[in-house]
């Protein structure tokens, strides 16, 4: 049997992290077994389905590197096929037309609640003579569900699960406007697409019992089901905004790499020994359903950040530079006024990337740490940086300026030698030379190695920043002196 899995989201919002994990597990399972992975957009809810949400799904899966086979299937294009199956069920006596009005259905529910029974449809039209139907009245089509015995599912994660058929009512297959319900459409589409394994959240387990009835009414073979435990917040409650990011887009915007997110989601509910950091190739090689646990998982944002740091340090510098440039350019377009995205900025960031990525936990932090390379003058100094530009710091900068202006070549090695020589000459510790220089270059007290930072900025920019820092510090000292008088 060739394994065929699918990811079938509804385009009604963001790509939630739980859905993203289901997509990943389906993808890895199919690839591990040499099978196929399909994408189906379940857009039968036309009022809530939007093109924007469809685009979010496509973008999110592509960003995660989950390439699907063939063209995506849009459920809304298959309504004719869904209706055809309903007609077959009617002809086989496995379904019937229900003419109950909304008011009658509500009265049924109210009566059931008053009698402390589950508010289910009572089968009013199940065995009635169709000749009794009111002429021209709208109707739904309901499945004639079995009332005796049990529906049993041999779930690949949950084990054997069962429900008494008496607990389920005759579900609606076709609405009064002729559109298929979700429960029907999923079964028909999975059957026609020859899906062999359905892996999804265990909040679908009740749906599975109902869908199994449709399969059996049609005489179709059921796929194997695997219901994945849900992802909870760190406190064990349902994952919500108060916990942090919940969707793929949010994690991407916060600067999580796709490799890190996929690696983390894989380990969230699946295990293989002590393996923690796994490449996509290793994931495909190792993943199988028997490693999926039965208990709900808890998001650990700290662990995700740790994994992200590992994957950032492994990432190609050119790729990280491109991402940082895009983030900074977006900030400029959105109104950030202290950046000048000149052609030189890309080269500066690229040269500094090996050092920059060692200090950042995510791409947003990396972009902010790199932003000093594009800042316009005068820089805005942090309090600690401003303190470094006191009288001693200004004296260091004044003494270094001619040294750096004459330095040739202006390389990290030459810069390091010049700074050490200057420190020795003036009986200073190297930090007393490097720190005011770092403050003048970045406006902060942190950066990659000062030799690398100066070389990346280039001689002309270094001298400009020294002049600007001295001018700024002198002006501030004058204001302080005037205030003291």
**What is the rounded distance between the termini?**
90 Å
Query: How many strands, which pairing sense, and closed or not: the largest β-sheet?
Result: 3 strands, parallel
Number of contiguous helices: 19
As a whole number of angstroms, the C-alpha radius of gyration is: 32 Å
Regions with little confidence, pLDDT below 50 for 5+ residues? none
Strand residue percentage: 5-15%
What is the average per-residue confidence, as pLDDT, rounded to a whole number?
94
Helical proportion?
40-55%
Number of strands: 12
Quaternary class: single chain
Q: Describe the global form.
A: elongated
What can you tell me about this protein's structure?
The protein is mainly alpha-helical and 485 residues long. It contains 19 helices and twelve strands. The chain has helices at 17-32, 51-64, 79-91, 102-114, 182-192, 205-218, 248-253, 258-267, 280-286, 301-314, 317-333, 343-359, 363-370, 383-388, 391-406, 412-425, 430-442, 450-457, 459-484; strands at residues 4-7, 36-41, 73-74, 95-98, 140-143, 150-155, 159-164, 172-174, 197-201, 224-228, 231-232, 297-298. Strands 1-2-3 form a three-stranded parallel sheet, covered by helices on one side. It has a three-stranded antiparallel sheet with strand order 4-5-8. Strand 2 (36-41), helix 2 and strand 3 (73-74) form a beta-alpha-beta unit. Helix 11 packs across helix 12 (343-359) and helix 17 crosses helix 19 (459-484). The longest helix is centred in the C-terminal third of the chain and has 26 residues, at 459-484. The radius of gyration is 32 Å and the shape is elongated. It starts with a strand and ends with a helix.
């Amino acid at each position: 049997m060739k394994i065929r899995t699918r990811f079938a989201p509804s385009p009604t919002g963001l790509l939630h992290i739980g859905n993203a994990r289901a997509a990943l597990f389906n993808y890895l399972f199919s690839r591990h077994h040499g099978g196929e992975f399909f994408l189906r957009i379940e857009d039968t809810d036309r009022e809530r389905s939007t093109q924007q949400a469809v685009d979010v799904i496509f973008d999110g899966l592509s960003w995660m590197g989950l390439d699907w086979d063939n063209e995506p299937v849009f459920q809304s294009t298959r309504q004719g096929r869904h209706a055809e199956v309903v007609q077959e069920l009617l002809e086989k006596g496995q379904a019937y037309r229900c003419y109950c009005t909304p008011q009658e259905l509500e009265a049924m529910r109210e009566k059931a609640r008053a009698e402390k029974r589950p508010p289910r449809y009572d089968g009013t039209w199940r065995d009635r003579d169709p000749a009794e139907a009111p002429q021209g009245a709208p109707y739904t089509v309901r499945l004639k569900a079995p009332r005796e015995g049990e529906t049993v599912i041999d779930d690949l994660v949950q084990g054997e699960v069962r429900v008494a058929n008496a607990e389920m009512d005759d579900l609606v297959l076709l609405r009064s406007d002729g559109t298929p319900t979700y429960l029907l459409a999923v079964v028909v589409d999975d059957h026609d697409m020859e899906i062999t394994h359905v892996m999804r959240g265990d909040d679908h387990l009740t749906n599975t019992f109902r869908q199994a009835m449709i399969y059996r009414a049609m005489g179709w073979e059921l796929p194997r089901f695997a219901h994945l435990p849900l992802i909870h917040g760190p406190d064990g409650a349902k994952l919500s905004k108060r916990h942090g990011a919940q969707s793929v887009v949010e994690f991407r915007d916060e600067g999580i790499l796709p490799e890190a997110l996929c690696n983390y989601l894989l380990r969230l509910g699946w295990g293989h020994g002590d393996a923690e950091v796994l490449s996509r190739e290793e994931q495909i090689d190792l993943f199988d359903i028997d490693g999926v646990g039965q208990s709900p998982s808890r998001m650990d944002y700290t662990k995700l950040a740790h994994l992200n740091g590992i994957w950032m340090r492994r990432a190609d510098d050119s790729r990280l530079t491109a991402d940082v440039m895009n983030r900074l350019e977006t900030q400029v377009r959105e109104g950030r006024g202290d950046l000048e995205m000149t052609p030189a900025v890309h080269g500066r960031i690229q040269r500094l990337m090996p050092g920059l990525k060692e200090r950042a936990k995510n791409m947003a932090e990396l972009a902010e740490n790199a932003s000093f390379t594009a800042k316009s003058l005068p820089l805005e100094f942090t309090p600690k940086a401003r303190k470094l530009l006191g009288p001693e710091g200004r004296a260091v900068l004044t003494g270094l300026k001619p040294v750096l202006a004459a330095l040739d070549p202006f390389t990290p090695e030459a810069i390091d030698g010049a700074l050490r020589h200057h420190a020795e000459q003036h009986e200073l510790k190297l930090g007393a030379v490097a720190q005011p220089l770092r403050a003048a270059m970045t406006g902060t007290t942190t950066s990659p190695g000062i030799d690398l930072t100066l070389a990346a900025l280039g001689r002309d920019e270094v001298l400009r920043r020294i002049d600007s820092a001295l001018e700024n510090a002198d002006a501030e000292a004058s204001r302080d002196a005037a205030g003291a008088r």
